[in-house]
Amino acid sequence: MPEVTLLSGLGRLSLRGTPAALAAAGAAFGLRLPEQACRAAEGDARAALWLGPDEQLLLVQQEVWPGVLAALGSGLRGMPHSLVDISQRQIALHIGGTGVTQLLNAGCPLDLHLQAFPVGMCTRTLLAAAPVVLWRTAAEDFHLEVGRALAPYLQQLLREVAREFEH
Questions:
Q1: pTM of the predicted model as reported, rounded to 2 decimal places
Q2: Residue 96: CB atoms within 10 Å
Q3: What span, in angstroms and rounded, lies between the C-alpha atoms of 59 and 114?
C-alpha cells in the first residue's frame, strides 16, 4: 500500500541563468546540473531538478545549507542569474510503496509507468488541482514538491485515495 510522508530538513533554491551561469552554479553547488530535459541529478545532501532550459530547482539538506549558499554566491558573482530561496514557499512529500503510480494517477494526467517516467525523471505537472514538481527517485518512490498552502489538501486527498487500496 502506498504511503505519504512529509519530508523535512530541505532548503530550496530556484536558479535561473545563462548556460555559463548554470555551469558555474553546478561547480559551486558540487553537482553537475542536469542538462537533459526533465531529469534530476543527486549528490551528497543535494539534488538538482531540470525545470526548463534556463531553470533548475536545487534541493539542499539543512546541514549543508550555509556552505552551499556561500559557494553559490561566490561562484555566481558577476554572472547574469537569479537565485531565489523558496524554502518557505514549498514543502516536500515522499510518496512510495506498492501501487504508488496508481495512487498518483488518481489525480495526475501523466503516464507514470516506469518506462514512460523512469527513475530520475522530473517535471512540473498537476496533481488534482495543485501545481507540483514530481520527481521519481526509485521504481516505487516519488518526491513531490508542492506549495505550502496546498500541501494539506494533497496529503488528505492522497491518503483518501490510498485507503481504496486497502479494500
A1: 0.94
A2: 19
A3: 23
